[in-house]
Specification:
The protein has about 170 residues and is an alpha+beta fold. The chain contains four helices and seven strands.
């Protein structure tokens, strides 16, 4: 996916560019190509970016460590400031109040936007924190119970006596 030059969005019909996506993202290991669309709308002092996309990824279960497939879908929208000013660096430990409606990303109005990188970030945010192959997964304990402990030959006579006692 090629970067989009921001002035090209501003000069596009209705100041909108739609990027069709049907490819594998290099940073995201997936079974299927990421399919969907990214819509870029130039709104003067900010860029409105929205996307609907989906793919299938392979994850490892946190309980039983087995691999399983997971459908990953994103339906996201974000505003990105277009500003020639460099954002002020804040001192470590200084709190900055940002509301959910305010754009927190900034790009130069003469710069480029990377749809691939943005989509990768959005898909990564959709990965589950707890990766479970099944909500009823019992984990490794079930596997441990199946492993038979080898019987020490010195106790074999006692084991056979025990079996004889249970038979009566």
């Amino acid at each position: 996916m090629d970067k989009v030059y921001i002035p090209d969005i501003e000069n596009a019909p209705q100041q909108t560019i739609v990027v069709d996506v049907d490819e594998f993202l290099p940073k995201l290991i997936s079974l299927t190509a990421v399919q969907g669309q990214i819509t870029l709308v130039h709104q003067g002092n900010y860029l409105q970016v929205s996307s609907q996309a989906k793919t299938i990824v392979t994850l490892n279960c946190d309980r039983c460590l087995q691999q399983y497939n997971h459908r990953l879908a994103v339906d996201a929208s974000e505003m990105i400031w277009l500003s020639t000013e460099v954002p002020e660096t804040t001192e470590p430990g200084l709190e900055v109040e940002v509301t959910l409606d305010e754009p927190v990303e900034t790009l130069s109005p003469r710069g480029s936007f990377s749809p691939e990188d943005w989509l990768y970030q959005q898909l990564s945010l959709q990965l589950p924190h707890r990766q479970l192959c099944d909500q009823y997964c019992e984990g490794l304990l079930q596997e441990v119970e199946k492993i038979e402990q080898p019987v020490d030959r010195r106790w074999a006579a006692l084991e056979s006596l025990k079996e004889q006692m249970q038979g009566h």
